[in-house]
UniProtKB/TrEMBL annotation:
<keyword id="KW-0808">Transferase</keyword>
<dbReference type="InterPro" id="IPR012792">
    <property type="entry name" value="3-oxoacid_CoA-transf_A"/>
</dbReference>
<dbReference type="InterPro" id="IPR037171">
    <property type="entry name" value="NagB/RpiA_transferase-like"/>
</dbReference>
<dbReference type="GO" id="GO:0016740">
    <property type="term" value="F:transferase activity"/>
</dbReference>
<feature type="transmembrane region" description="Helical">
    <location>
        <begin position="20"/>
        <end position="40"/>
    </location>
</feature>
<dbReference type="InterPro" id="IPR004165">
    <property type="entry name" value="CoA_trans_fam_I"/>
</dbReference>
<protein>
    <submittedName>
        <fullName>CoA transferase subunit A</fullName>
    </submittedName>
</protein>
<keyword id="KW-1133">Transmembrane helix</keyword>
<keyword id="KW-0812">Transmembrane</keyword>
<keyword id="KW-0472">Membrane</keyword>
<dbReference type="Pfam" id="PF01144">
    <property type="entry name" value="CoA_trans"/>
</dbReference>
C-alpha cells in the first residue's frame, strides 16, 4: 500500500486511540501540522499526552485540542500564549511536564536515536530536577533526562515525495525532523507532493524510512501568524 492518503482523516484512520502519546511538530504556529491536529480533534480521542514545544494559541494549533479537553498532559517548554492552557492548569484539569527547550529537543532526538537517557547540567538545583537521578562528572553535577518515544508523531514539511522523503523550509523545520524519528508511527502533511526521484537527495532532511503516511495540504491551506510585528514606514 502506498504512503499517500486522500485526507488527514484517512491518514490517521486506525492509528488514534485514547490515552496515547502524540508528538506534534512546530514552534508557535510555524510549521505546525494543522490539518492533522484538526483530524485528531474530529476523531474525539481523549486523555492524550502531547509532546510539543508549546500549545499553540487558543483558537489554532494544539489549542484546539485543549478547547475540547482531549489533552490530559502536555510535555512542553513554553505555554505563555495560550489562555486556555493556563486556565486548565491552574484549575488542576491539565498536567504539565515542563522542560527547558534544549532539554526537550534532546529528549526527542535521543528517543529517535535509541538513547534511553542522557545527562545535562540544565535544571540542576531547580524544580526541573526534582525526583530525577543525578551524577557527577568532572566535579560538576548533572541531572538525568529520559529520551522520549511517542506512539505517534504528526509533522509538517514543505515538500515531500510519495516515498516519504521530506524537505522543510527555513524556520518551519524546527522540531519536525527530530520528531519524525522518535515515534512508532509518523504521519506527515506536506505542502508540495512530488514523484520519487524529483527531490535532490542532498536536500532531503527526513528519509522516507521514518514516514509511514502522507497527506498533501489543499490549495486553501492557511498559514497563521502568531504575532504580527510592524513598524511605521520611514519617510524619505
Amino acid at each position: 500500500m502506498g504512503k499517500v492518503y486522500r485526507d488527514a482523516q484517512d491518514a490517521l484512520a486506525g492509528v488514534l486511540r485514547d490515552g496515547m502519546m502524540i508528538m506534534s511538530g512546530g514552534f508557535g504556529l510555524c510549521g505546525i501540522p494543522s490539518l492533522l491536529i484538526g483530524a485528531i480533534r474530529e476523531s474525539g480521542v481523549r486523555d492524550l499526552t502531547i509532546v510539543s514545544n508549546n500549545a499553540g494559541i487558543d483558537d489554532a494549533g494544539l489549542g484546539l485540542l485543549l478547547q475540547t479537553r482531549q489533552v490530559r498532559k502536555m510535555i512542553s517548554s513554553y505555554v505563555g500564549e495560550n489562555a486556555t492552557f493556563a486556565r486548565q492548569f491552574l484549575a488542576g484539569e491539565l498536567e504539565i511536564e515542563f522542560n527547558p527547550q534544549g532539554t526537550l529537543a534532546e529528549r526527542i532526538r535521543a528517543g529517535g536515536a535509541g538513547i534511553p537517557a542522557f545527562y545535562t547540567k540544565t535544571g540542576v538545583g531547580t524544580a526541573v530536577a526534582e525526583g530525577k537521578p543525578t551524577a557527577e562528572f568532572d566535579g560538576e553535577t548533572y541531572v538525568q533526562e529520559r529520551g522520549i518515544v511517542a506512539d505517534l508523531s504528526i509533522i509538517h514539511a514543505w515538500k515531500g515525495d510519495e516515498e516519504g522523503n521530506l524537505i522543510y523550509r527555513r524556520t518551519a523545520r524546527n522540531f519536525n525532523p527530530m520528531m519524525a524519528t522518535a515515534a512508532r508511527m509518523t504521519v506527515a502533511q506536506v505542502e508540495h507532493l512530488v514523484q520519487p526521484g524529483d527531490l535532490d537527495p542532498d536536500h532531503i532532511v527526513t528519509p522516507g524510512i521514518f514516514v509511514k503516511r502522507l497527506v498533501q495540504v489543499g490549495p486553501g491551506f492557511e498559514k497563521r501568524i502568531e504575532q504580527r510585528t510592524t513598524r511605521k514606514k520611514l519617510m524619505a
